Amino acid sequence: MALLGQSIPISFSKTSFNKLYVNGKYIKSNSTDTLSLLNPKDGTLVAEKIPIADKVDVDTAVKHAEAAFNGPWATFTSSQRSECFRRLADILETKLPDILHLDSLTTGNPVSLIPTREKNYIKNCLLYYAGWTDKLRGDYFPADDGFVKLVRQEPLGVCVAINPYNSPVASLFIKAAPCLATGNVLIVKPSEKSPLGSLAVAPLFEEAGFPPGVVQVLPGDGKTGALLAEHMRVRKISFTGSVATGKKIQIAAAQSNLKRVTLELGGKSPAVIFEDADIDNAVTWTINGILARTGQVCVAASRVYVQKSISEKFISQYVERMKAAALGIGDPQDPDTRYGPLADSAAFEKVRAMISRGKGEAELVVGGNQIGTKGCFIEPTVFLNPKPDAEIYRNEVFGPVVVVKTFDTEEEVIEAANDTEYGLMAGVFTKDINRALRVSARIDSGVVGVNCVSMMHIQAPFGGKKASGIGREFGEYALRAFTEPKTILINM
Ligand code: NAD
């Protein structure tokens, strides 16, 4: 990779990364197809000649991954695995800010998030799973019929992480930590829009003591992802991305070797504000919920339902705060910036087109325009009272665009919140604990926040119902997703 014309204070900025990371080394790709990456703040070229890994590259990485799975890594004790995690967390303490800074050049994620959120999130994830390496238990059933039954939780083997563009390094660690804690090996396929951080982080695994081949990185696009999804020696795909790609991966998995899949897909998350809610708290959470990473998060609070009796007060506060938030949008590499641009011109054009069509289907109350004349900046945008089938109300926008609707009754809002194919996250804002629990139980999503929204916690399962996905990440659930039980029957 050649990094062009970008002044970034990082040690590896001059290093050549126009390679794959395979078996502990940066190696040349067999492919001549390459990617160029632009900074979404102004369209300047950040890097070029990033390889798009092809079939030969994929086969090479899988071969080394299999060798690593059966090599010294298989003999690591749980405490040795845990030590690797802890050493990696220490190494990242100093190196992660530069790596995340590098990613910011292509994702547009503000560098202001690095010290406050990103770094801690990734370190917590590693330390959390460092504590799990010796705790995943099997099972035992007594020999009352003459057979003792032992159940072992065994690793799957060669696993693949296929990641989206919005938070590439965090996605890498969310998948790598439970995958490695259970003794698997991992090939990472970052998004074609944001491979830099993943390529930069790869050698740190060996520096921390993981053997070569345990974590490898293959940059590429959908074709590379498809080669991995259909590969006969890959045992698991852990995918985060769109519903459309998730379906293709599930088909490829079924048609090849029935490899296991975890799918973390899109969302259209509802936030329900009841009349007894703390309005200030609800406004704060729902605004953060739609503006974090400029709306490019799967759990974005993109549908807000507010009870009619408080709707005037809530909506006026909400709109004012959205207008004020526009002032926090700017150069993502400026440490004072809160919100950056959309990740590239394709994302920008898609969001603009949805806003434009939305104007005929709902009332635009604020935003909707490009900010400035260059770059992928878009105003925080609020629509009111959508038509029932409005695209802006039904489909994931993946931008800073929210639709607000009023409601009268609990029953009515539960029905509206559930009237979607998505089911990832929801928020319920009320001071009545009975109502909070009643409504949470009836909302059809993998996660419900009470008096909060658009958040996740490493201890608790995270993932979607319905078209938002299959399986769960985080907590013990992720460890289960990277292992399979084996039963041993002992004839006494
Ligand atoms: P995407 O589906 O376009 O791409 C995701 C990854 O899949 C990329 O690495 C891409 O190269 C790869 N890919 C594309 N075609 C493929 C194929 N045929 N086979 C295998 N891999 C293929 O998604 P995106 O635009 O990068 O990310 C945005 C989407 O991700 C949104 O829908 C968002 O909601 C979702 N997302 C979900 C979560 C979650 O945890 N649920 C988190 C972040 C993002």
UniProtKB/TrEMBL annotation:
<dbReference type="GO" id="GO:0004029">
    <property type="term" value="F:aldehyde dehydrogenase (NAD+) activity"/>
</dbReference>
<dbReference type="Pfam" id="PF00171">
    <property type="entry name" value="Aldedh"/>
</dbReference>
<protein>
    <recommendedName>
        <fullName>aldehyde dehydrogenase (NAD(+))</fullName>
        <ecNumber>1.2.1.3</ecNumber>
    </recommendedName>
</protein>
<dbReference type="InterPro" id="IPR016162">
    <property type="entry name" value="Ald_DH_N"/>
</dbReference>
<dbReference type="InterPro" id="IPR016160">
    <property type="entry name" value="Ald_DH_CS_CYS"/>
</dbReference>
<comment type="similarity">
    <text>Belongs to the aldehyde dehydrogenase family.</text>
</comment>
<dbReference type="InterPro" id="IPR015590">
    <property type="entry name" value="Aldehyde_DH_dom"/>
</dbReference>
<dbReference type="InterPro" id="IPR016161">
    <property type="entry name" value="Ald_DH/histidinol_DH"/>
</dbReference>
<feature type="active site">
    <location>
        <position position="264"/>
    </location>
</feature>
<feature type="domain" description="Aldehyde dehydrogenase">
    <location>
        <begin position="27"/>
        <end position="488"/>
    </location>
</feature>
<dbReference type="InterPro" id="IPR016163">
    <property type="entry name" value="Ald_DH_C"/>
</dbReference>
<dbReference type="InterPro" id="IPR029510">
    <property type="entry name" value="Ald_DH_CS_GLU"/>
</dbReference>
<keyword id="KW-0560">Oxidoreductase</keyword>
